[in-house]
């Protein structure tokens, strides 16, 4: 307790006006992120506005051996801390260099910031399905986005990180300078430090043919297997997914959706609209289409494809990367999201392969590149429901275990114990990541969303 008090005093002196405690106005708002389960209750919060603020905060934590965590922007799960919380949400700067097709992205910038900055130059980042996700935190987990099958993981396109490691050192990390950290930061989940900014390559994409088709599962009971078969010969330029959920029967929703189990067929194609229409025509044969938003759209509107909720809420989720999809397992998956589920649940499938399966120019910690599909399950969670939700998710994924390669960190919205965390990496890579983490954080000060060995 004495060290904590001394640390708070030191932070007040070194970062006047940027430190909050439980008595400060704005403390509750600052400690609360998009993921509202497992709220932080830190002794102090540093509302960082620059990389220097982050360095000062980590230096104090390192000197006092005070546990700390980062309140990053986006959907991720971070283990709560009672020590120091570093909030990077004010660090939203983005600088685009059209000559080199790169962007410098600060720690708190969302993909919306990056997309809007790149678009006037005819460029786009490898952003995710939700524009409100933090670009840095997303990339640290690998980054599986709308252009994934054409261009690979977002982490494959990082040129440089600026990072403050838990020993208080500010480092510039590239493939040539600090190569071990460069490997670990691309797909390792942020265990080795606080990233204050990154330089990423952009791609020459201005428009997509994309959107969704909505089908009633009772009228298209084999929709998941039909989608699986359709993905068998689509080009790399086409990235797709399917989600299933049951809409509540409440006023305000369209009559065609209320109380129904609905499959969303989601498409992002970075080719011509005519080719996109031809490629997606078979989707319309799966069953009666209740709604159709497939169209040619600017990349700045790409968030409309998944149209994910923007309101923060508590939730849990898990996933498996699989070699293939067993039709028998798919048949049971729709029931998990059906009207008889004990809690509201969304199940999802994402098509992998293409550029995702090819090794990057510079090796990284991203695992399971040979996976063909990602199976995910997600539920909002209320007080007293976490055990129920965890059991439901485990049961939903169990039929896919024989084909499973492991997890994808960016879709693991739950605390992972070490044995589960290990499954997110290829053989030997977890031990390498653990060794790098121990070297820069021997006292295990940095709290991330998952356990460490």
UniProtKB/TrEMBL annotation:
Has UniProt tagged this entry with the keyword Transcription regulation?
Answer: no
The family this protein is said to belong to:
Belongs to the oxygen-dependent FAD-linked oxidoreductase family.
Q: Which SUPFAM superfamilies match?
A: FAD-binding/transporter-associated domain-like
| Organism, scientific name | Saccharomonospora azurea NA-128
Which GO molecular function terms does the record list? FAD binding; oxidoreductase activity
Q: Which residues form the FAD-binding PCMH-type domain?
A: 38-205
Q: What is this protein called?
A: FAD/FMN-dependent dehydrogenase
Which Gene3D superfamilies is this protein grouped with? Answer: 3.30.465.10, 3.40.462.20, Uridine Diphospho-n-acetylenolpyruvylglucosamine Reductase, domain 2 (3.30.43.10)
